[in-house]
Design goal:
With about 550 residues, this protein is α/β, with parallel strands linked by helices. The protein is about 35% helix and about 20% strand.
């Protein structure tokens, strides 16, 4: 039976009592419209934002649903201001709509007064071509994305119902060798439905190892159109290609890689964000008045227009670089599917993902998939090590940014890594060691005699090392931050993190995801984060863990002296 375990505060924060027997149930209930901001011992603090409410509204939740969920677990009456804020801002989603009328793109609104007020805003009036009525106006299709961003920033998100170009037809079927899991089928169907009669693209949020690539392929099989897939790395691109060829009816002639290594275009083209944001430098011509000026342009953006794409898939959409964001603003007539384990962006551009790719359409708490056996159970440990006297003195007098590096590269961590390797040698575990600083990783890899993959490792050498790890020929592999995303190493069961990117919540979640594929023997995945005690790194660790804490993961704190 549910009982009171949250306190809703007038500043739109929710305090969750983690000592309550109902805290897990309550956490999962409020997760669709909140974000964890602090997780000390007894009360976790969640925030209700306008964006979190709009994402919830896009999945079908109403203001009444949200308030009912809060009331169910609240220890006190919900403040009137919170009720008003939730009601108003969830009510705003869908008040403005983009639709097609007689082949024209039309912005329409339920409220005459609101529509006229918005259209008179300086930021908006330049986008209006002509008024159809006091509640509808024609806008140019070329500004569809920019207009959505502006209106979201003004607090009135647009529901895009204008539909999409069909794209060139492509016969594609999923193979008979595997069956979609129920949640994968549901995710693909939710996306497909939102992209047909009702319009709208969107983002699927699921943990690493849960089969987001398969959901992408299921969406392709439903839409049956030429597809452009954007990925964070060549390794990820080749993984997509391998999966598509294994699990669909498509052939090698139909699935092509567009990267720094290979620039082929086919009915299904898998490209990297890196190649799309590559700049071409042109020497100044003789007429240029400024000596030495260099004209820069993105040399591979023609890929977007090379075919009539019917679907664009953004893998790890939370990594979307700014230039691709800008081009995506012009691709609003193409269906867009974002895939990610977390919508968290440390640059706070979640609003742009919402506006240009689409709202969150589907997600499931990580712990639910863990309970169903679709991802491995995980045990997280934070191991805190001391600084030796020499490092302590250097740290004390160092400037702030240097303190971070000194703490991250603390030599005492090497002894911890060796102890962990010894501990897991008996189980014959496959172990990934991951870190931020190349010199640190090079020194560690040399000391423990393991292969190292960094950004400078040629793609063909990376692929060989990953394949050797999969086959069990290599049991321990050291990787830099290139290992954060899209490495398909299903037998990896232990991850040791020796340094990271400041307080990045998304990085912490992605790194845990490297070991979340279910193990054949049912053993849990082990995640160790080795940090320097009483340092900036310890402060950052608290922030890094927020997203995982929101999903229900706790960290066992271990103090160790080497």
């Amino acid at each position: 039976m549910s009982g009171p375990c949250i306190i809703v505060q007038s500043n739109m924060e929710v305090l969750l009592n983690v000592d309550s027997k109902q805290h897990q149930e309550a956490r999962d209930t409020i997760a669709p419209f909140t974000e964890l901001v602090k997780s000390p011992e007894h009360f976790h603090t969640y925030s209700i934002s306008h964006l979190s409410l709009w994402n919830a509204a896009s999945t079908g939740l109403s203001a009444e649903d949200v308030l009912a969920r809060l009331k169910k677990y609240s220890s006190y009456e919900i403040p009137d201001i919170v009720i008003a804020e939730i009601t108003e801002y969830m009510g705003r989603y869908g008040m403005l709509r983009l639709v097609l009328r007689d082949a024209s793109l039309v912005l329409e609104c339920d409220s005459e007064a609101l529509f006229l007020e918005i259209c008179k805003r300086k930021e908006i009036e330049g986008y209006i071509e002509s008024f159809i009525s006091t509640k509808a106006a024609v806008v140019s299709p070329l500004v569809r994305g920019k207009l959505k961003i502006l209106l979201t920033e003004l607090g009135f998100p647009v529901q895009d119902l204008a539909g999409y170009v069909q794209g060139e037809h492509l016969d594609i079927e999923l193979g008979d060798s595997f069956a979609l899991r129920d949640y994968q089928k549901d995710a693909a169907q939710v996306f497909y439905a939102s992209g047909s009669e009702k319009g709208g693209s969107g983002v699927i949020v699921l943990p690493c190892g849960s089969g987001k690539t398969i959901i992408g392929m299921a969406a392709m099989a439903l839409i049956k159109s030429h597809t452009l897939i954007l990925t964070p790395s060549v390794t990820a691109a080749r993984q997509w290609i391998r999966e598509i060829l294994q699990k669909t009816s498509l052939t090698e002639n139909q699935v092509k890689e567009y990267s720094g290594d290979s620039k082929e275009i086919g009915p299904v083209t898998v490209a990297t964000y890196q190649i799309l944001t590559q700049r071409k430098r042109n020497k100044p011509n003789e007429e240029e008045s400024v000596a030495g000026s260099i004209e820069q342009e993105f040399s591979n953006f023609s890929l977007f227009e090379s075919r009539k794409w019917g679907l664009m898939i953004y893998d790890e959409v939370h990594l979307l670089p700014a230039p691709v964001f800008r081009f995506s603003a012009d691709m609003q007539a193409t269906r867009r599917l974002g895939l990610t384990a977390t919508l968290v962006r440390e640059d706070h551009k979640e609003t742009e993902v919402f506006s240009l790719i689409g709202p969150k359409k589907f997600d499931i708490p990580w712990r639910i998939l863990e309970a169903q056996g679709w991802i491995a159970q995980a045990k997280c440990h934070e191991i805190r090590v001391n600084m030796n006297p020499e490092l302590r003195m250097a740290y004390a007098v160092a400037p702030p940014r240097e303190k971070i590096v000194l703490a991250g590269c603390n030599q005492e961590k090497f002894g911890v890594v060796k102890k962990l390797l010894e501990k897991h040698s008996e189980e014959n575990d496959r172990i990934l060691i991951i870190g931020q600083y190349i010199e640190q990783l090079e020194a560690l890899a040399k000391e423990i005699d393991t292969p190292l993959i960094t950004g400078k490792t040629p793609n063909k050498d990376r692929d060989k090392l990953y394949e050797s790890f999969r086959r069990g020929e290599i049991r321990i592999l050291t990787v830099s931050k290139v290992g954060n995303f899209a490495i398909d190493l299903p037998d990896a069961s232990v991850l040791i993190q020796i340094s990271g990117t400041f307080g990045s919540r998304q990085e912490e979640a992605q790194r845990l995801g490297r070991v979340l594929r279910p193990k054949k023997d049912g053993r849990p995945a082990m995640f160790y984060s080795v940090i320097t005690k009483e340092s900036k790194e310890q402060e950052f660790a608290m922030n890094r863990q927020l997203f995982l804490a929101e999903q229900g993961y706790g960290y066992e704190i271990i103090y160790i002296s080497v």
